[in-house]
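Researcher: Sit down with what I've pasted below and flag anything odd:
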Amino acid sequence: MAGHSKWANIQHRKGRQDAKKAKFFTKAAKDIILAAKAGGGNPEDNSSLRLAIQKAKAVNLPKDKIENAIKKGTGELAGGDLFEILYEGYGPGGVAMLVDVVSDNKNRIVAEVRHIFGKHNGNMAEAGAVSYMFNKKGVIVFNKDKYTEDDLMEVGLEAGAEDIIDDGDSFTVQTEPSDFMAVQQAFTDAEMEFESAEVSQVPENLVPVDVSNGKKVMALFDALEDNDDVQKVYLNADFPDELFEEA
Protein backbone atom coordinates (compact mmCIF):
# COMPACT_ATOMS: atom_id res chain seq x y z
CA MET A 1 0.00 0.00 0.00
CA ALA A 2 3.03 2.32 -0.03
CA GLY A 3 2.21 3.67 -3.48
CA HIS A 4 -1.31 4.43 -2.35
CA SER A 5 0.10 6.31 0.65
CA LYS A 6 2.33 8.45 -1.58
CA TRP A 7 -0.59 9.43 -3.76
CA ALA A 8 -2.75 10.08 -0.70
CA ASN A 9 -0.08 12.46 0.55
CA ILE A 10 0.05 14.25 -2.80
CA GLN A 11 -3.74 14.55 -2.78
CA HIS A 12 -3.73 15.80 0.80
CA ARG A 13 -1.19 18.54 -0.02
CA LYS A 14 -3.07 19.40 -3.20
CA GLY A 15 -6.28 19.59 -1.21
CA ARG A 16 -4.84 22.25 1.08
CA GLN A 17 -3.93 24.31 -1.99
CA ASP A 18 -7.31 23.77 -3.65
CA ALA A 19 -9.07 24.82 -0.47
CA LYS A 20 -8.04 28.38 -1.25
CA LYS A 21 -10.01 28.33 -4.48
CA ALA A 22 -13.65 29.33 -4.79
CA LYS A 23 -14.41 26.20 -6.80
CA PHE A 24 -13.53 24.07 -3.79
CA PHE A 25 -16.32 25.84 -1.90
CA THR A 26 -18.70 24.85 -4.70
CA LYS A 27 -17.75 21.19 -4.36
CA ALA A 28 -18.19 21.29 -0.58
CA ALA A 29 -21.62 22.90 -0.96
CA LYS A 30 -22.68 20.22 -3.47
CA ASP A 31 -21.79 17.49 -0.96
CA ILE A 32 -24.05 19.18 1.58
CA ILE A 33 -26.91 19.58 -0.92
CA LEU A 34 -26.80 15.90 -1.85
CA ALA A 35 -26.59 14.74 1.75
CA ALA A 36 -29.54 16.92 2.81
CA LYS A 37 -31.51 15.84 -0.24
CA ALA A 38 -31.00 12.16 0.61
CA GLY A 39 -31.39 12.19 4.37
CA GLY A 40 -32.93 15.46 5.51
CA GLY A 41 -31.55 18.73 6.83
CA ASN A 42 -30.86 17.73 10.44
CA PRO A 43 -27.20 16.69 10.84
CA GLU A 44 -27.99 14.95 14.13
CA ASP A 45 -30.17 12.48 12.25
CA ASN A 46 -28.13 12.43 9.03
CA SER A 47 -24.56 11.14 9.34
CA SER A 48 -23.78 11.92 5.69
CA LEU A 49 -24.79 15.53 6.24
CA ARG A 50 -22.67 15.69 9.41
CA LEU A 51 -19.66 14.51 7.45
CA ALA A 52 -20.34 16.93 4.57
CA ILE A 53 -20.62 19.86 6.99
CA GLN A 54 -17.46 18.76 8.75
CA LYS A 55 -15.55 18.70 5.46
CA ALA A 56 -17.01 22.07 4.46
CA LYS A 57 -15.86 23.64 7.72
CA ALA A 58 -12.40 22.17 7.19
CA VAL A 59 -12.05 24.27 4.02
CA ASN A 60 -13.63 27.30 5.72
CA LEU A 61 -16.90 27.35 3.81
CA PRO A 62 -18.85 30.24 5.39
CA LYS A 63 -21.69 29.38 7.74
CA ASP A 64 -24.33 31.09 5.58
CA LYS A 65 -23.25 29.06 2.55
CA ILE A 66 -23.52 25.85 4.58
CA GLU A 67 -27.03 26.82 5.70
CA ASN A 68 -28.07 27.74 2.16
CA ALA A 69 -26.73 24.44 0.83
CA ILE A 70 -28.81 22.54 3.39
CA LYS A 71 -31.91 24.49 2.37
CA LYS A 72 -31.24 23.75 -1.30
CA GLY A 73 -31.02 20.07 -0.46
CA THR A 74 -34.29 20.09 1.46
CA GLY A 75 -36.06 22.13 -1.22
CA GLU A 76 -36.44 25.32 0.83
CA LEU A 77 -34.28 27.15 -1.73
CA ALA A 78 -33.87 26.62 -5.46
CA GLY A 79 -30.67 25.06 -6.77
CA GLY A 80 -30.88 21.57 -5.35
CA ASP A 81 -31.66 19.82 -8.62
CA LEU A 82 -28.40 17.87 -8.82
CA PHE A 83 -27.57 14.29 -9.69
CA GLU A 84 -24.60 12.15 -8.66
CA ILE A 85 -22.93 9.69 -11.01
CA LEU A 86 -19.73 7.66 -10.96
CA TYR A 87 -17.86 7.52 -14.27
CA GLU A 88 -15.26 4.84 -14.91
CA GLY A 89 -12.18 4.86 -17.09
CA TYR A 90 -8.55 4.00 -17.68
CA GLY A 91 -5.56 6.29 -17.59
CA PRO A 92 -2.07 5.87 -19.05
CA GLY A 93 -0.37 2.60 -18.11
CA GLY A 94 -3.70 0.82 -17.56
CA VAL A 95 -4.48 2.69 -14.34
CA ALA A 96 -8.13 2.28 -13.31
CA MET A 97 -9.96 5.49 -12.40
CA LEU A 98 -13.31 6.35 -10.84
CA VAL A 99 -14.67 9.88 -11.29
CA ASP A 100 -17.29 10.99 -8.78
CA VAL A 101 -19.43 13.70 -10.39
CA VAL A 102 -22.23 15.96 -9.14
CA SER A 103 -23.92 18.02 -11.84
CA ASP A 104 -27.17 19.56 -13.04
CA ASN A 105 -26.47 18.68 -16.68
CA LYS A 106 -25.69 15.06 -17.48
CA ASN A 107 -25.10 15.54 -21.21
CA ARG A 108 -22.62 18.34 -20.65
CA ILE A 109 -20.58 16.67 -17.93
CA VAL A 110 -20.27 13.28 -19.65
CA ALA A 111 -18.94 15.06 -22.75
CA GLU A 112 -16.48 17.05 -20.65
CA VAL A 113 -15.21 13.98 -18.78
CA ARG A 114 -14.83 12.02 -22.01
CA HIS A 115 -12.91 14.91 -23.57
CA ILE A 116 -10.54 15.13 -20.59
CA PHE A 117 -9.81 11.40 -20.70
CA GLY A 118 -9.13 11.52 -24.44
CA LYS A 119 -6.93 14.60 -24.22
CA HIS A 120 -4.74 12.97 -21.56
CA ASN A 121 -4.14 9.53 -23.12
CA GLY A 122 -6.98 7.79 -21.30
CA ASN A 123 -10.44 6.51 -22.14
CA MET A 124 -13.80 6.12 -20.47
CA ALA A 125 -15.14 2.64 -19.74
CA GLU A 126 -18.55 1.05 -19.41
CA ALA A 127 -20.25 0.97 -16.01
CA GLY A 128 -18.83 -1.88 -13.94
CA ALA A 129 -15.60 -2.20 -15.92
CA VAL A 130 -13.54 -0.49 -13.21
CA SER A 131 -15.66 -0.13 -10.07
CA TYR A 132 -15.25 -3.79 -9.07
CA MET A 133 -11.54 -3.05 -8.47
CA PHE A 134 -12.42 -0.69 -5.60
CA ASN A 135 -14.13 -1.03 -2.23
CA LYS A 136 -15.93 1.81 -0.49
CA LYS A 137 -14.32 2.32 2.92
CA GLY A 138 -13.98 4.86 5.67
CA VAL A 139 -10.34 6.01 5.67
CA ILE A 140 -8.68 7.85 8.56
CA VAL A 141 -4.98 8.69 8.19
CA PHE A 142 -2.62 9.30 11.11
CA ASN A 143 0.96 10.55 11.19
CA LYS A 144 3.30 7.79 12.35
CA ASP A 145 5.39 10.26 14.32
CA LYS A 146 2.46 10.94 16.65
CA TYR A 147 0.92 7.53 17.29
CA THR A 148 1.86 3.87 17.40
CA GLU A 149 -0.22 1.09 15.90
CA ASP A 150 -1.13 -0.01 19.43
CA ASP A 151 -2.45 3.50 20.19
CA LEU A 152 -4.73 3.35 17.19
CA MET A 153 -5.84 -0.22 17.84
CA GLU A 154 -6.82 0.57 21.40
CA VAL A 155 -9.29 3.24 20.32
CA GLY A 156 -10.17 2.22 16.77
CA LEU A 157 -10.91 -1.47 17.07
CA GLU A 158 -13.16 -0.97 20.06
CA ALA A 159 -15.13 1.65 18.11
CA GLY A 160 -15.57 -0.64 15.10
CA ALA A 161 -12.50 -0.10 12.91
CA GLU A 162 -11.95 -2.89 10.39
CA ASP A 163 -8.20 -2.70 9.83
CA ILE A 164 -5.08 -0.64 10.52
CA ILE A 165 -2.59 -0.46 7.65
CA ASP A 166 1.07 0.55 7.82
CA ASP A 167 1.58 2.92 4.88
CA GLY A 168 5.23 3.76 5.47
CA ASP A 169 5.12 7.24 6.97
CA SER A 170 1.53 6.97 8.15
CA PHE A 171 -1.09 4.58 9.50
CA THR A 172 -4.42 4.22 7.74
CA VAL A 173 -7.44 3.12 9.75
CA GLN A 174 -10.11 1.54 7.55
CA THR A 175 -13.76 1.08 8.45
CA GLU A 176 -16.98 0.01 6.82
CA PRO A 177 -18.78 3.16 5.60
CA SER A 178 -21.54 2.61 8.16
CA ASP A 179 -19.00 2.64 11.02
CA PHE A 180 -16.94 5.59 9.79
CA MET A 181 -18.56 8.38 11.82
CA ALA A 182 -18.48 6.37 15.05
CA VAL A 183 -14.80 5.49 14.64
CA GLN A 184 -13.87 9.05 13.72
CA GLN A 185 -15.75 10.35 16.74
CA ALA A 186 -13.95 7.87 19.00
CA PHE A 187 -10.58 9.23 17.88
CA THR A 188 -11.83 12.80 18.32
CA ASP A 189 -13.06 12.01 21.83
CA ALA A 190 -9.66 10.49 22.60
CA GLU A 191 -8.06 13.75 21.37
CA MET A 192 -6.12 11.88 18.68
CA GLU A 193 -5.43 14.17 15.74
CA PHE A 194 -5.71 12.67 12.24
CA GLU A 195 -4.29 13.95 8.96
CA SER A 196 -7.45 13.28 6.95
CA ALA A 197 -10.74 11.43 7.28
CA GLU A 198 -13.23 10.55 4.55
CA VAL A 199 -15.32 7.82 2.98
CA SER A 200 -13.29 6.79 -0.06
CA GLN A 201 -12.99 4.25 -2.84
CA VAL A 202 -10.02 2.06 -1.87
CA PRO A 203 -8.36 -0.01 -4.63
CA GLU A 204 -8.05 -3.74 -4.01
CA ASN A 205 -4.70 -3.84 -5.80
CA LEU A 206 -2.26 -1.25 -7.15
CA VAL A 207 -0.96 -1.05 -10.71
CA PRO A 208 2.76 -0.13 -10.89
CA VAL A 209 3.51 2.77 -13.25
CA ASP A 210 6.84 4.19 -14.37
CA VAL A 211 7.78 7.86 -14.09
CA SER A 212 6.65 8.68 -17.62
CA ASN A 213 3.18 7.18 -17.23
CA GLY A 214 2.99 8.43 -13.66
CA LYS A 215 3.34 12.02 -14.85
CA LYS A 216 0.62 11.45 -17.44
CA VAL A 217 -1.71 9.94 -14.84
CA MET A 218 -1.14 12.92 -12.54
CA ALA A 219 -1.90 15.31 -15.43
CA LEU A 220 -5.15 13.46 -16.13
CA PHE A 221 -6.02 13.48 -12.43
CA ASP A 222 -5.43 17.24 -12.19
CA ALA A 223 -7.48 17.95 -15.33
CA LEU A 224 -10.41 15.94 -14.01
CA GLU A 225 -10.31 17.55 -10.56
CA ASP A 226 -10.17 21.01 -12.14
CA ASN A 227 -13.68 20.45 -13.48
CA ASP A 228 -16.20 22.09 -11.14
CA ASP A 229 -18.61 19.15 -11.40
CA VAL A 230 -16.00 16.54 -10.45
CA GLN A 231 -16.10 15.95 -6.70
CA LYS A 232 -13.38 13.31 -6.38
CA VAL A 233 -11.12 11.10 -8.50
CA TYR A 234 -9.97 7.66 -7.32
CA LEU A 235 -7.23 5.58 -8.92
CA ASN A 236 -5.23 2.39 -8.35
CA ALA A 237 -1.76 3.56 -9.40
CA ASP A 238 1.39 2.57 -7.53
CA PHE A 239 3.64 5.57 -8.20
CA PRO A 240 7.45 5.27 -8.15
CA ASP A 241 9.47 7.03 -5.44
CA GLU A 242 11.05 9.38 -7.99
CA LEU A 243 7.68 10.79 -9.00
CA PHE A 244 6.67 11.41 -5.41
CA GLU A 245 9.95 13.19 -4.73
CA GLU A 246 9.43 15.40 -7.78
CA ALA A 247 5.86 16.20 -6.71
Observations:
- The chain has nine helices and ten strands.
